[in-house]
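Can anyone check this?
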Amino acid sequence: MKVLDLHCAHDHTFEGWFGSESDFQDQLARGLVECPLCGSRTVRKALSAPRLNLRAGSAPPHTAAASDAAPSSSGGPAAASARPAPAGAGMAPSSKALQAAWLQMARHVMAHTEDVGRGFAQEARRIHHGEAEERPIRGQASPKETAQLLDEGIAVLPLPLPAAAKETLQ
């Protein structure tokens, strides 16, 4: 199993797990590796030190420090774990904090809202007019539909979430 530190075109850092280098290259070529923050499929490997476990049952010396690190995301369809990226993996501390806060917010939105899909504008209107039960919803609306909802006094917030966020966020 190869654990790779990855960066997207917007320099978000995340980790991906692959069976081999050729698995990574194949999935990358087919557009299956995407940034869990922005959905970018322009992904590159970052330089990283190899992780070696020379004795069974012994933890690597950096384990204690890694548990104190800010959590990072997993790498889309190819990732299998949400282990933090190594310290100093190319992002300034403020960027890491912003990435962690965004992921926490995205997890909260996904866990506490109902996905009404492309019928978002219609369902938001039904809720606003008392024709449907009031509840937190999310879905897709065009920029035109969003502007119309706002003009009608219906509070909405465009929140772009990548496709990977619609699955369980690690």
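Reply from J.R.: I decoded it. The longest strand covers residues 2-8.
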